[in-house]
Amino acid sequence: MQMETFILIGIFVVFIVLLINLPVFVIMLIAKTNKVKLSYREALKLYRCKVADKSFLKSVAKFQEKNIPVSVAMLVAHKLSGGNLENCVEGLIYAKENNLETDFLSVSAFDLAGKNVKESFLDANQVYEIKLRDLTNGKISIDYFVNYKYEFPSVFVEKDCEKVKDKIEGKLGTFLESWNNTNTFETEEMIRKNILNTDFWEGNLRIVLISQKIIIREEVEK
Predict the structure, then answer these.
(1) Are 88 and 107 in contact (CB under 8 A)?
(2) Whole-angstrom Cα distance, residue 186 to residue 172?
(3) Strand, coil or helix: what is 134?
(4) Do strands 140-150 and 207-218 pair parallel, antiparallel, or not at all (unpaired)?
(5) Chunked in runs of 10, what are the mean pLDDT values of the chain (222 residues)?
(6) Which string of DSSP letters, residue by residue, matches 139-200?
(7) Rounded to an integer, what distance in angstroms lies between the CA atom of residue 81 and that of residue 63?
(8) For residue 23, cis peptide bond before it (omega within 30 degrees of 0)
(9) Does the predicted model carry a pTM greater than 0.85?
Protein backbone atom coordinates (compact mmCIF):
# COMPACT_ATOMS: atom_id res chain seq x y z
CA MET A 1 0.00 0.00 0.00
CA GLN A 2 2.84 2.39 0.89
CA MET A 3 4.60 1.56 -2.38
CA GLU A 4 1.46 2.31 -4.35
CA THR A 5 1.18 5.66 -2.59
CA PHE A 6 4.75 6.57 -3.52
CA ILE A 7 4.09 5.59 -7.15
CA LEU A 8 0.92 7.70 -7.27
CA ILE A 9 2.73 10.65 -5.76
CA GLY A 10 5.55 10.18 -8.28
CA ILE A 11 3.12 10.06 -11.19
CA PHE A 12 1.37 13.16 -9.84
CA VAL A 13 4.67 15.05 -9.54
CA VAL A 14 5.72 14.07 -13.06
CA PHE A 15 2.32 15.16 -14.34
CA ILE A 16 2.61 18.55 -12.63
CA VAL A 17 6.15 19.05 -13.99
CA LEU A 18 5.04 18.16 -17.50
CA LEU A 19 2.01 20.42 -17.18
CA ILE A 20 4.10 23.36 -16.02
CA ASN A 21 6.65 22.84 -18.78
CA LEU A 22 4.11 22.06 -21.49
CA PRO A 23 4.42 25.52 -23.15
CA VAL A 24 8.21 25.10 -23.32
CA PHE A 25 7.91 21.66 -24.88
CA VAL A 26 5.40 23.03 -27.39
CA ILE A 27 7.88 25.77 -28.35
CA MET A 28 10.58 23.14 -28.83
CA LEU A 29 8.24 21.10 -31.01
CA ILE A 30 7.22 24.10 -33.13
CA ALA A 31 10.90 25.09 -33.43
CA LYS A 32 11.78 21.61 -34.64
CA THR A 33 9.08 21.75 -37.32
CA ASN A 34 10.65 25.06 -38.47
CA LYS A 35 14.14 23.46 -38.56
CA VAL A 36 15.32 25.42 -35.54
CA LYS A 37 17.57 23.77 -32.99
CA LEU A 38 16.64 24.86 -29.47
CA SER A 39 17.79 23.59 -26.11
CA TYR A 40 15.33 23.40 -23.22
CA ARG A 41 16.95 26.46 -21.64
CA GLU A 42 16.68 28.47 -24.88
CA ALA A 43 13.03 27.46 -25.34
CA LEU A 44 12.34 28.47 -21.74
CA LYS A 45 13.86 31.91 -22.42
CA LEU A 46 11.65 32.33 -25.50
CA TYR A 47 8.61 31.41 -23.44
CA ARG A 48 9.45 33.80 -20.61
CA CYS A 49 10.24 36.66 -23.00
CA LYS A 50 7.16 35.92 -25.13
CA VAL A 51 9.05 36.11 -28.44
CA ALA A 52 8.45 32.60 -29.79
CA ASP A 53 6.31 33.70 -32.71
CA LYS A 54 6.50 32.43 -36.28
CA SER A 55 8.56 35.35 -37.63
CA PHE A 56 11.13 35.01 -34.84
CA LEU A 57 11.59 31.29 -35.40
CA LYS A 58 11.81 31.83 -39.16
CA SER A 59 14.67 34.28 -38.66
CA VAL A 60 16.45 31.97 -36.22
CA ALA A 61 16.17 29.19 -38.78
CA LYS A 62 17.96 31.39 -41.34
CA PHE A 63 20.77 32.21 -38.91
CA GLN A 64 21.29 28.52 -38.18
CA GLU A 65 20.94 27.39 -41.79
CA LYS A 66 23.63 29.83 -42.94
CA ASN A 67 25.89 29.02 -39.97
CA ILE A 68 25.95 32.63 -38.79
CA PRO A 69 27.49 32.60 -35.30
CA VAL A 70 25.03 34.31 -32.96
CA SER A 71 23.35 32.97 -29.84
CA VAL A 72 19.61 32.69 -29.38
CA ALA A 73 19.97 34.94 -26.33
CA MET A 74 21.43 37.73 -28.51
CA LEU A 75 18.60 37.32 -31.00
CA VAL A 76 16.06 37.55 -28.20
CA ALA A 77 17.73 40.69 -26.82
CA HIS A 78 17.66 42.34 -30.25
CA LYS A 79 14.02 41.41 -30.75
CA LEU A 80 13.08 42.87 -27.36
CA SER A 81 14.96 46.07 -28.26
CA GLY A 82 12.62 46.56 -31.20
CA GLY A 83 15.00 45.15 -33.78
CA ASN A 84 14.12 43.47 -37.05
CA LEU A 85 15.87 40.10 -37.17
CA GLU A 86 14.92 39.54 -40.80
CA ASN A 87 16.68 42.76 -41.74
CA CYS A 88 19.77 41.63 -39.79
CA VAL A 89 19.96 38.12 -41.20
CA GLU A 90 19.47 39.27 -44.80
CA GLY A 91 22.34 41.73 -44.37
CA LEU A 92 24.60 39.12 -42.78
CA ILE A 93 23.82 36.58 -45.50
CA TYR A 94 24.68 39.14 -48.18
CA ALA A 95 27.92 40.02 -46.35
CA LYS A 96 28.90 36.37 -46.04
CA GLU A 97 28.17 35.61 -49.70
CA ASN A 98 30.23 38.63 -50.81
CA ASN A 99 33.17 38.15 -48.42
CA LEU A 100 32.41 41.30 -46.44
CA GLU A 101 33.66 41.24 -42.85
CA THR A 102 31.02 42.22 -40.30
CA ASP A 103 29.27 40.75 -37.28
CA PHE A 104 25.89 40.64 -35.60
CA LEU A 105 26.65 43.44 -33.13
CA SER A 106 27.48 45.85 -35.97
CA VAL A 107 24.52 44.78 -38.07
CA SER A 108 22.12 45.03 -35.13
CA ALA A 109 23.29 48.61 -34.53
CA PHE A 110 22.59 49.48 -38.18
CA ASP A 111 19.16 47.88 -37.90
CA LEU A 112 18.23 49.77 -34.73
CA ALA A 113 19.34 52.99 -36.47
CA GLY A 114 16.66 52.33 -39.09
CA LYS A 115 18.96 51.24 -41.91
CA ASN A 116 18.12 48.53 -44.43
CA VAL A 117 21.24 46.46 -43.81
CA LYS A 118 21.41 44.59 -47.10
CA GLU A 119 20.82 47.74 -49.17
CA SER A 120 23.50 49.52 -47.13
CA PHE A 121 25.97 46.78 -48.09
CA LEU A 122 25.13 46.64 -51.81
CA ASP A 123 27.71 49.24 -52.84
CA ALA A 124 30.48 47.90 -50.58
CA ASN A 125 32.69 47.08 -53.58
CA GLN A 126 31.56 49.90 -55.85
CA VAL A 127 34.42 51.86 -57.39
CA TYR A 128 33.99 55.62 -57.86
CA GLU A 129 35.90 57.70 -60.40
CA ILE A 130 36.78 61.40 -60.42
CA LYS A 131 38.45 63.37 -63.20
CA LEU A 132 39.89 66.87 -62.88
CA ARG A 133 41.48 68.64 -65.84
CA ASP A 134 43.49 71.78 -66.44
CA LEU A 135 44.06 72.92 -62.85
CA THR A 136 46.71 75.61 -63.17
CA ASN A 137 48.65 78.35 -61.40
CA GLY A 138 50.01 79.81 -64.62
CA LYS A 139 53.27 77.91 -64.35
CA ILE A 140 52.10 74.31 -64.38
CA SER A 141 48.79 72.60 -65.09
CA ILE A 142 47.50 69.37 -63.57
CA ASP A 143 45.12 66.69 -64.80
CA TYR A 144 44.09 64.40 -61.97
CA PHE A 145 42.30 61.05 -62.18
CA VAL A 146 41.39 58.87 -59.19
CA ASN A 147 39.51 55.63 -58.47
CA TYR A 148 38.36 54.94 -54.92
CA LYS A 149 35.82 53.12 -52.79
CA TYR A 150 34.51 53.58 -49.27
CA GLU A 151 35.71 51.75 -46.18
CA PHE A 152 33.41 48.91 -45.15
CA PRO A 153 31.02 49.23 -43.45
CA SER A 154 30.11 52.74 -44.58
CA VAL A 155 26.44 52.71 -43.59
CA PHE A 156 26.52 56.20 -42.04
CA VAL A 157 28.91 57.80 -44.55
CA GLU A 158 27.53 60.33 -47.01
CA LYS A 159 28.58 59.10 -50.44
CA ASP A 160 28.56 62.25 -52.53
CA CYS A 161 31.01 62.12 -55.42
CA GLU A 162 30.68 65.84 -56.12
CA LYS A 163 31.64 66.76 -52.56
CA VAL A 164 34.69 64.52 -52.75
CA LYS A 165 35.59 66.12 -56.07
CA ASP A 166 35.27 69.60 -54.56
CA LYS A 167 37.55 68.66 -51.65
CA ILE A 168 40.22 67.27 -53.98
CA GLU A 169 40.00 70.29 -56.23
CA GLY A 170 40.24 72.59 -53.20
CA LYS A 171 43.37 70.81 -51.92
CA LEU A 172 45.05 70.97 -55.32
CA GLY A 173 43.99 74.59 -55.82
CA THR A 174 45.49 75.66 -52.46
CA PHE A 175 48.65 73.73 -53.29
CA LEU A 176 49.03 75.38 -56.70
CA GLU A 177 48.63 78.86 -55.20
CA SER A 178 51.81 78.42 -53.15
CA TRP A 179 53.81 76.15 -55.47
CA ASN A 180 56.33 77.75 -57.80
CA ASN A 181 58.33 74.66 -58.78
CA THR A 182 57.89 73.62 -62.42
CA ASN A 183 59.69 70.28 -62.10
CA THR A 184 57.02 67.71 -62.92
CA PHE A 185 58.62 64.87 -60.98
CA GLU A 186 59.06 66.89 -57.78
CA THR A 187 55.54 68.30 -58.11
CA GLU A 188 53.97 64.87 -58.44
CA GLU A 189 55.99 63.53 -55.53
CA MET A 190 54.87 66.47 -53.38
CA ILE A 191 51.22 65.85 -54.22
CA ARG A 192 51.36 62.11 -53.53
CA LYS A 193 53.30 62.37 -50.26
CA ASN A 194 51.94 65.57 -48.71
CA ILE A 195 48.75 66.76 -50.39
CA LEU A 196 46.62 63.82 -51.51
CA ASN A 197 48.29 61.29 -49.22
CA THR A 198 47.02 58.45 -47.05
CA ASP A 199 46.02 60.79 -44.21
CA PHE A 200 43.84 62.78 -46.59
CA TRP A 201 42.11 59.76 -48.09
CA GLU A 202 41.66 57.57 -45.06
CA GLY A 203 41.68 60.12 -42.25
CA ASN A 204 39.82 63.05 -43.80
CA LEU A 205 37.52 61.36 -46.30
CA ARG A 206 37.34 57.79 -44.91
CA ILE A 207 37.95 56.58 -48.44
CA VAL A 208 40.06 53.71 -49.73
CA LEU A 209 42.30 54.90 -52.54
CA ILE A 210 42.54 52.36 -55.35
CA SER A 211 44.57 54.27 -57.92
CA GLN A 212 45.43 57.82 -58.87
CA LYS A 213 47.05 59.25 -61.96
CA ILE A 214 48.61 62.71 -62.10
CA ILE A 215 49.58 64.40 -65.36
CA ILE A 216 51.62 67.56 -64.89
CA ARG A 217 52.56 69.95 -67.69
CA GLU A 218 54.69 73.05 -67.61
CA GLU A 219 52.77 76.06 -68.91
CA VAL A 220 54.24 77.71 -71.97
CA GLU A 221 54.53 81.49 -71.69
CA LYS A 222 52.67 83.29 -74.42
Answers:
(1) yes
(2) 15
(3) strand
(4) antiparallel
(5) 57 47 74 86 86 88 92 93 95 93 94 94 91 94 95 86 94 94 94 94 89 91 57
(6) SEEEEEEEEEEE-S--TTS---HHHHHHHHHHHHHHHHHH-----HHHHHHHIIIIISSHII
(7) 18
(8) no
(9) no
